[in-house]
Each structure stands twice: as structure tokens, then as C-alpha cells.
Write a structure and sequence with these properties.
MFS, transmembrane transporter activity, Growth Hormone, Chain: A, 16 helices, mainly alpha, MFS_trans_sf, 2 domains, about 375 residues, transmembrane helix
Length: about 375
Amino acid sequence: MWAAAHAVDDLYQGLVPASVPYFVLDRGYGYLAASGLTLAATLGSSLPQPLIGLLVDRRRVGPLAAVGVVLAGLGVGLAGLAPGYALTWSLILLSGTGVAMFHPAAGRAARIDAGDSTAAMSVFAAGGSVGFFLAPVLATPALAGLGLAATALFIPPAVLVGFVLLRAHRRQAAASSVAAVGPAGGEDRWRPFLLLTAVESARSVLFFGVNTFIELYWLRHLHTGHTTAGAALACFLVGGVAGTLAGGRIADRAGAVRTVQAGTALAIPALVALRVAPSPGIALLAATAVGVAINIPFSVLVKLGQDYLPTRPGTAAGVTLGLAVSIGGLAAPGLGAIADAWGIAAVFWVLCLVPVPGLLLAVFLPEIRPTRPQDAQDRRRAT
């Protein structure tokens, strides 16, 4: 349930960049105005998340995830119908705020249901990757055929998921209250959590950098058509879903920190292979490998952040799923400036270097001894 809700919620994050070209074409927005829409979504989804996480941890606002996903869908869905730029911008900001409301509450609830299983948390995290993948797949034909008014077609999934989450919350509240499962001891460890946030920020810059420029790399450097360029983006995103799921299972066997270190290290040769690939076909394989490597640490970082802050799982989720992830979106204009100055190939040389500081910081992350599933069940019964 939480993985499906995460997919729908992050679908609306992906719909904003997917719809921006149609705002430019249909309404005549300039590039500055178009980038302002992306900025509205980023600001709405990133800045409030830590504060909402604190609220979730202190007040444990159960329906917040349901309300958040509904607002995320309504904001983007109505933006295509809004008559003026100011209202459009405000609605996209509202959608981003809905995304911010969803992640801390959903991350905390998913962790309760997942217990100490990183593999289970990887399913929740992979839902978000699926949502990002589906956004351009669904939005492009709808917007191309019906125009901006087609954004309204994406409102019903938000309302349906919000209804399902609200009913699930009411059933759970009527049955019993469930205590969050965290590592033994229950002491918050802020220093490693800040290190982890920096590692996640580096991973986020990689993800948004490749996601933003991979199609342009195929078109302008490898000189392919739009179909092959779209296939490159699809390979990268599908590899991301596979990497997210694989990372959780590897972490349950090899340890969370080792998995983060391994995924970050593997990203370096994968990115180099993508940059030096002699043909578009080989580059497609490299793009898939890049997606896998970049996302192996994703779900692990989400759960590890909650392990470092066992009394604040909502705050941890708000930072790892929200603030740190959004840093990648804020870094994208800088990569764009590099592309303008030195060409699109230079961006991918820079991206080859981004995992290095993340790997160096990951060396200092302390490992947390995994808890066996039976131990987690015993602790639930005890509470």
C-alpha cells in the first residue's frame, strides 16, 4: 500500500518537469518563467519537509499522508486549467507542499510496517522511482493530444489513494496503536545523520544531473534520434527501480553502510563507462548500470537515517526523502551553466567526480547491527 501511494505521490513530482515544455508551447512562457514553475515545485517539496517531519514525530498526525497526496494531485491537476501565471505558480507550489506532507508521514508509517527489514523499505522507496518513471510516459501523450487541460486527468488517482490511506489509518487507529520500530537503545545520533544527509545530497545531484541531461547527451553528443534518447532515459530509470530493490536486499545481508559504500563506489566506473562509450548501444547498457548503481544506496539511506534518529523517524524521512533529494534539483541549473559553457559532454565528466566526496563521507558512517525479523516481532509484542 505504501509503495503504491509513494508511486502516485512522486508521479506528481515528475509531472511538473514533464509538463513544463507544454506551458512554454501553449502559453508562450519564456525559459525564466518555465524554470520558475520547476522552482515552485522544488521549494514546496523540499523546505517544509524537515518541519513536517518534526510535527509527525511529535503529534503523529495520521491522516497527513492522505491529505498530502491529494494536495499533490490537485495542485498539478488544476495548474493546467489555471488562467494566469501567478495562479499556476501557486498551484504548483501547493502540489509541492502536498508532496512535502506525504513523505515524512508515509516514511514513518512504512518503517513501522517494514520493521527492521531494509528489503521491505526498498519496496517503499522503489515506489517513488516507479512514479518518476511513469510521469513522462503518461503525461507526454496526454499533453500532446489534449493540451494542458489534460493535467486534470491526473487528479482522480490522488483522490483514490488519499481515500485508501485515510481508510487504512482509521482501521489501524480503531484496532490499536503501533509503536515505531527502531534500533535498540533509542538514542538519536545526529553526527552520523548529518554525514548521511551529505551522502544522500551527492547521490541526489547525480540522479537529477543524469535524469535532466541524459536525453540531450544522446541527441547532441551521440547524435541519435529522439526515440533512442527516450530509450536512454527509460533505461536509466528502470535501472534505478532495480537498484533500489536490490539495495535493500543487499543491505539485509551485507550491512547498510557497506551497501551505501559499494553503490557509491560502483557509480564511478558506471559513469565513466557512459561517458566514454563508443556507440549508442553500449551507452544504453552503461545508462542502465548508472541507474542501478546510483539507486543501490537510496532505500538504504532512508532506513539508515531512521536508525540514526530512532525517536524521530518522520524527521529522518523528511530529510532523506525530501530536503536532501531536492538538493539535486537545485544543483541542476549549475550543471546547465556548465553545458552552456563547455558542452553537454562536460556535464558527464563533472558527474563522474560527484560520487567521490560522497564515498569519502560514507567511509565515516557507523554501521548499525541489523536486527533479525524475529527480534523485531518480539519487540512489537513487547510494546
